[in-house]
Design goal:
NADH-quinone oxidoreductase subunit H, globular, two-stranded antiparallel sheet, translocase, cell membrane, 15 helices, mainly alpha
């Protein structure tokens, strides 16, 4: 069998295997309480995020925002939810009834399932709930991050099935857009996760947070963090990547034919996914439940007791503010730009960065000094850049020679072929247009008088005008 201890090397070079023995020992009623807490945490965060988003965007646009329901409009999202539940539930006649009803459920349930493996506090520092010592995490798995990717992939089916089952053209286009967008961005997201696996030596969320004790992965793996930030915005269909539900060209996208509680479930799934991807970013790159540096350096008890939950919630709220900031700042991109960014930029960059991280980890495992690793990596990067420069020079020279050969072989283009003006085909050029004389050199010429630059009368007429 493969020695798992060697596959689970921690970032400081000590071989260790994550200890998950503290999970799975809670009584059933405590598991139920923790599950209800995770559900309530997501719901309350969503209700707050909707109000916060409308307030922040209104502040950015010099508006007032919601200020009627509750103090300072804090109950606006609750009022919106009640309004959606009380609206008429319309079912399209040509829709596939079973799939049409199940699609919002399929989109919403996976969004709630991902929070189960997110640690709100240290696994080794248990808290007391009704006299029972337990961890501040529902459960953990040796492959917890793969579980997160799998759950996020299931949520795509809800959007695709919603667009297909509506029996309408625009929802179908929105569902196809959503499927293509999420699949393309999940590839780069998985490569960003793989860099974290290589550096932490584990796929367990609690072990990944423990590996960030000395330094957060946002400092060690900045490229992976930036790739994940971009992909998480595309994953949840938020502006500027909200193409599956762009109102301008798709009316409303995959949820065009939905109303009442089913539309509310799609909206709930979007905001719950925002909270989930933010929690994953905090766990993998921002130290998880750990207090930021100034606090942890001067306060020994910052990462004990119930305080870790406060740091975790604050980090999640900062990332939610980042979502809102993007929506109020950037315009929506075109769909071809969205797909080009995913396939031609994010995926190649993430793969190259993953290979670089793997090389550094392999050199560290061989006990190479840090200076030697920097020299090797810098030399490899310079060599690749030089090779690409030489390839670009030769490619440009060949393209110019081929273009010159095509121009020499091309027949002269006649724009009046057949008696009608026709546009040039690819590779053809219009004949040069005779330049007009400068305005200062023009003179008024009387009708029938000879031109200054001609030797005789104009238009074949005699000088006497006959």
């Amino acid at each position: 069998m493969i020695d798992l201890a060697h596959a689970a090397e921690a970032h400081h070079g000590v071989l260790a295997l994550e200890d998950l023995s503290m999970f799975g020992r809670d009584p059933w009623w405590l598991v139920l309480i923790k599950a209800v807490f995770c559900f309530a945490f997501l719901m309350l965060t969503v209700l707050f995020s909707i109000v916060w988003e409308r307030k922040v965007v209104a502040w950015m646009q010099l508006r007032i925002g919601p200020n009627r329901h509750g103090p300072w409009g804090l109950l606006q999202s609750l009022a919106d939810g009640m309004k959606l539940m009380l609206k008429e539930d319309v079912v399209v006649k040509r829709a596939d009834k079973v799939v049409y009803v199940l699609a919002p459920i399929v989109a919403a349930i996976p969004a709630f399932m991902a929070i189960a493996v997110i640690p709100f506090g240290p696994a080794g520092n248990e808290v007391s709930i009704f006299g029972q010592r337990t961890t501040m995490q529902l459960t953990d798995l040796p492959i917890a991050v793969l579980y997160l990717l799998a759950v996020a992939s299931v949520g795509i089916y809800g959007l695709v099935l919603a667009g297909w089952s509506s029996g309408s053209t625009y929802p179908l286009l929105g569902g196809l857009r959503s499927c293509a967008q999420m699949i393309s961005y999940e590839i780069a997201m998985g490569a960003a996760f793989a860099s974290v696996f290589l550096y932490s030596g584990s796929m367990s969320t609690s072990a990944i947070v423990d590996a960030q004790e000395d330094r957060w992965f946002v400092l060690l793996l900045p490229v992976s963090f930036l790739i994940y930030i971009v992909t998480m915005v595309g994953e949840v269909n938020r502006a500027p990547f909200d193409m599956p539900e762009s109102e301008g060209d798709l009316v409303g996208g995959f949820n065009t034919e939905y109303s009442s509680i089913k539309f509310a479930m799609f909206m709930l799934a979007e905001y719950v996914n925002m909270v989930t991807v933010s929690a994953v970013a905090v766990t993998l790159f921002l130290g998880g439940w750990r207090a930021p540096y100034p606090v942890s350096a001067f306060w020994e008890g910052a990462n004990h007791g119930w305080w870790p939950m406060l740091w975790f919630v604050l980090k999640v709220q900062l990332l939610l503010f980042f979502f809102i900031w993007l929506r109020g700042t950037l315009p929506r991109v075109r769909y071809d730009q969205l797909m080009r960014l995913g396939w031609k930029v994010l995926i190649p960059v993430s793969v190259v960065w993953l290979m670089l991280v793997a090389t550094v980890r392999a050199l560290r495992n061989e006990n190479y000094e840090f200076q030697q690793i920097v020299l090797y990596v810098a030399g490899a990067v310079i060599a690749v850049l030089l090779l690409s420069l030489v390839a670009d020079v030769f490619r440009g020279r060949r393209e110019k020679e081929a273009e010159a050969a095509r121009a020499a072989e091309a027949e002269p283009f006649d724009p009046m072929a057949g008696g009608f003006p026709v546009p040039p085909l690819p590779g053809q050029e219009l004949p040069p247009v005779p330049r007009r004389r400068p305005r200062g050199d023009r003179e008024l010429i009387a009708s029938g008088a000879p031109r200054p630059d001609s030797d005789g009368p104009q238009d074949g007429k005699e000088a006497d005008g006959v």
